[in-house]
Design a protein that fits this description.
Layout: H1 2-17, H2 28-34, H3 52-58, H4 63-72, E1 79-80, E2 84-85, E3 92-103, H5 106-118, H6 128-132, E4 137-142, H7 155-165, E5 168-175, H8 178-182, E6 188-194, E7 202-207, E8 211-213, E9 216-218, E10 223-227, E11 230-234, H9 239-262, H10 293-296, H11 298-311, H12 322-331
């Protein structure tokens, strides 16, 4: 009898849990399932909470350098292009809140609306994801490319997105009221096209599930970086390293541009000249003397100074966060001495011994990029190191 009672309780438990699988909003457990590689802070709904600082830094790096890093790590379908934009000259970034829409069929529409009523939702279900947005989000919606009668927002819903996020949206669909949306403060967006029609014959099916945007796969919590050229969706667990790698590449390019202007680069574009005797330098200069030791630890600062003593003194302006530059140095192993510099206090694992940087323009298929790619800068032996 006890065994039968236990079995009945188990069946009842399964039956009670079944409706949760049909809810429009993905459960926290479902989001954790898809984003298990993220080990940091999360929102209450389970989405990874990429730090605000990374959102700001992402705006300063080119899409190509993020794209290259992701491909080197096996993440190929993360970019899509062919968009119209409310403000093409203003990039924006945020954390993805995803939504999926499908062509309407009455039975599915009735089920979705009944669930919405049970959850206390009101109005058309194209407004439901907007209610769930928080500051720093980007509303990412798969509207299956529908434009005529596929306009997911007008200016009323656009103002709601702006109020909730101070960021914007990415819609594989159309919008209406484009002129009014352009005049809304704190709102930008990518969309397939404008049309004056209102949305019709489509329905929301899920919020915060994996979705497809063009040729890209998007998970809730991805770092969305949208620019005039297109949009890239950076997996949350790779966001910090992807941006750091892109910052390194920017410094490398800046050095090579300077060599090109001086006519000193020869044919070796993208590589440090061998006669310099090192594969990587650091853009720090006198700024290191002002580095707060509490930020990265005394050992890391000492490592910077040791590096300068071995390879010369570096004098160049820093355009990226000093923390990123110093952390890059902490990873780097100098081939001339074989000495590994101190790691920063965030205890990142040291990379394997470095065997030189294959050009990111000539790496073979499947060949991983070195970590870091390197910071290539001119040295000034006449400068003083403090």
């Amino acid at each position: 009898m006890k065994i039968l009672a236990a079995a009945l309780l188990g069946i009842a438990g399964i039956a009670a849990a079944t409706p949760a699988l049909a809810q429009v909003n993905q459960s926290r457990a479902q989001i954790l399932f898809y984003t298990a590689d993220w080990k940091g802070e999360r929102f209450a709904d389970g989405r990874p909470k990429v730090p605000d600082d990374l959102l700001r830094r992402a705006l300063e790096v080119p899409l190509e350098d993020i794209w290259g890093y992701l491909r080197d790590h096996g993440y190929n379908p993360q970019f899509d292009s062919g968009w119209q934009s409310l403000h093409p000259d203003k990039p924006f970034a945020g954390r993805a809140l995803t939504a999926q829409y499908m062509p309407l069929r009455p039975d599915m529409w009735n089920a979705v609306m009944a669930q919405g009523k049970k959850d206390g939702r009101v109005s058309g279900n194209n407004s439901w994801p907007i209610h769930d947005l928080v500051m720093g989000d980007v509303y990412v919606a798969d509207g299956f490319g529908k434009i005529v009668e596929g306009t997911l927002i007008g200016s009323n819903l656009g103002s709601g997105i702006a109020a909730h996020t101070h960021s914007g949206f990415v819609f594989d669909a159309g919008i209406r009221d484009a002129e009014e949306n352009r005049n809304i403060p704190n709102l930008n967006g990518l969309y397939r096209a404008y049309d004056p029609s209102a949305w019709k014959d489509m329905t929301l099916t899920t919020i915060n599930a994996p979705i497809r945007i063009g040729r890209a796969t998007v998970l809730p919590g991805d770092l969305v970086l949208a620019k005039q050229e297109g949009v890239i969706f950076i997996p949350a667990h790779l966001a910090e390293d992807a941006i750091l790698s892109a910052e390194f590449t920017q410094l490398e390019d800046g050095y090579n541009f300077e060599l090109n202007k001086q006519g000193a680069n020869g044919a070796q574009f993208g590589e440090l000249r061998p006669q310099r005797g090192v594969h990587a330098g650091v853009a720090i200069g006198d700024a290191v003397a002002r580095l707060d030791a509490d930020l990265l630890g005394n050992k890391t600062v000492q490592g910077v100074r040791q590096h300068a003593a071995v390879f010369g003194v570096f004098k160049v302006h820093v355009h990226f966060p000093l923390e990123s530059v110093v952390r890059g140095l902490a990873w780097h192993r100098a081939d001339a001495t074989g000495a590994a510099h101190a790691s920063n206090r965030r205890a990142r694992a040291a990379p394997p011994p470095w065997r030189g940087p294959p050009s990111r323009r000539s790496r073979g298929k499947g060949e991983a990029a070195p970590r870091p790619r390197g910071l290539f800068l001119a040295t000034d032996p006449k400068s003083s190191w403090r």
